[in-house]
Write a structure and sequence with these properties.
3 domains; 14 helices; 445 residues; 7-stranded antiparallel beta sheet; 37% helix
């Protein structure tokens, strides 16, 4: 259903396909008209953003081509286009604020509907978003700006989503979408035109038998691999902290994990200051005798996070994954703790024991974004800005427990250095502006 809604939205915007949605003898008042040049900018922004989009995003994120997009886009690509591309890249191109607000509302409620867990307040937000979208369509229809052909059956079914969620739970819990890949696997193996039903049964029975033998450890049909499958092969270096302290004092050109030791040591010192609240905190003798184990990947929150160090060792990598969102706590002017969100590029991970009689922790060494705010069109869409090449980058270290999720960065169509932040598996809070962090709160000059 959602992919069909996305295709309908694309047809409404496409200069080659939107003729049937215009009101006869009143075509000049059509609200959703985009030029061919606009779609060229959309394609360029999507292609340029691809290297900052994690591979765990369902869609291919291939740039939209007006000539053949309907033949190369899959269902998951259409959904990703509606959820991630329209509110970030397409929305600023509309000529009216009302059109921008309407499409962002449609994208927002579909993103909320895709969550595994949905609260009552989010269901009410879904209802408000649908009302915003359909009220805008009704306004356009009443003013003879669009034809009634916009109101398709799939568009009508959106109205029933809040009711279905309240009665049966989140849509993902009973969706058959996850069966698509399995159906595709079986479909490729069912080839007989004679007695196809028997052939299908044999294929399913054979696959299930091999699956049982494999899962039960009775046979091992996997390819032989000499590589170590343990997570320890992610480690690339081990160094004693005292050695880093000594080398930093002697020479500022030493590196750790491929990055300058002085930057890493400065970020570690600032982390300990934030942790203790004491600006005179120094590296203790106990800490200097601890080993720092550097790794290029991290298993946390039931997923594998990768770093810039990992990507540098894999030249064939064409997708992102090294950008993450995390939280950090600082005290405001009223000396009250405030939790803010930040986005950084992970340079590498490391584990380290900084306190006696306590287990070691995993930490993230990353490069912060320069600014953290929200889209001018929606407070639910975070936006960041990178440092220019000539500017001094700000480095940070934080506990991996503060990780929120891996994120993707989408280029703005205005050619600025601003990047819209997107994530998979859930929606951002309705107002991200109130908790947007400032670099000065966690990095001390």
């Amino acid at each position: 259903m959602f992919s069909h809604v996305s295709k309908l939205c694309f047809d409404m915007l496409s200069p080659k396909l939107n003729t049937r949605f215009k009101f006869d003898v009143n075509e000049d008042t059509y609200r959703f008209a985009l030029e061919t040049a606009d779609f060229t900018r959309i394609k360029t922004a999507m292609d340029d953003s691809l290297r900052a989009i994690p591979a765990d995003f369902s869609g291919s994120f291939a740039g939209v081509n007006l000539d053949n997009v309907r033949s190369i886009y899959r269902s998951v690509d259409w959904i990703a286009w509606l959820v991630h591309v329209i509110p970030t890249i397409v929305a600023p191109l509309f000529h009216t604020r009302e059109a921008t607000t309407g499409f962002i509302a449609l994208s927002r409620n579909i993103q909320l509907s895709f969550q595994w867990s949905i609260s009552e307040s989010e269901v009410k937000e879904i209802e408000r978003c649908f009302k915003t979208w359909f009220d805008y369509l009704n306004t356009c229809f009443d003013s003879s700006s669009i034809s009634r052909t916009v109101f398709r059956s799939n568009m009508h079914q959106l109205n029933h989503i809040p009711y279905m969620i309240r009665r049966m739970g989140p849509l993902r819990c009973y969706s058959a979408r996850l069966l698509e890949s399995s159906i595709g696997i079986y479909k490729k193996r069912i080839r007989l035109s004679l007695n196809p039903g028997v052939n299908a049964g044999n294929v399913m029975e054979t696959r299930e038998m091999f699956s049982f033998l494999q899962s039960g450890g009775i046979i091992d049909s996997s390819a032989y691999d000499l590589k170590d499958k343990s997570p320890f092969h992610w480690r690339v270096n081990t160094v004693k902290l005292g050695q880093v302290v000594k080398q930093t004092k002697e020479n500022h050109n030493y590196t750790i994990g491929g990055y300058l030791e002085k930057d890493w040591f400065k970020a570690l010192s600032q982390f300990l200051i934030r942790l203790t609240g004491n600006t005179s905190t120094v590296i203790t003798s106990f800490q200097q005798h601890q080993f720092v184990n550097i790794s290029q990947k991290l298993w946390a929150n039931n997923q594998i996070y990768i770093s810039d160090l990992c990507k540098s060792k894999n030249a064939a990598s064409s997708r992102g994954g090294e950008y993450i969102m995390f939280t950090a706590i600082h005290k405001n002017r009223m000396f009250r703790p405030v939790e803010n969100w930040y986005v950084c590029k992970v340079l590498f991970f490391f584990d380290f024991t900084y306190q006696e009689d306590a287990p070691g922790s995993n930490f993230v060494f990353g490069e912060l974004m320069k600014n953290h705010d929200v889209s001018p069109y929606s407070k639910a869409i975070p936006r960041v800005k990178r440092y220019d090449e000539a500017e001094q980058k700000q480095i940070v270290i934080f506990d991996a427990e503060d990780l929120l999720s891996a994120v993707g960065l989408v280029n703005a169509v205005d050619g600025s250095n601003n990047k819209y932040v997107i994530k998979t598996g859930g929606a951002f809070k309705v107002d991200m502006s109130s908790t947007a962090g400032s670099v000065g709160n966690i990095v001390f000059r």
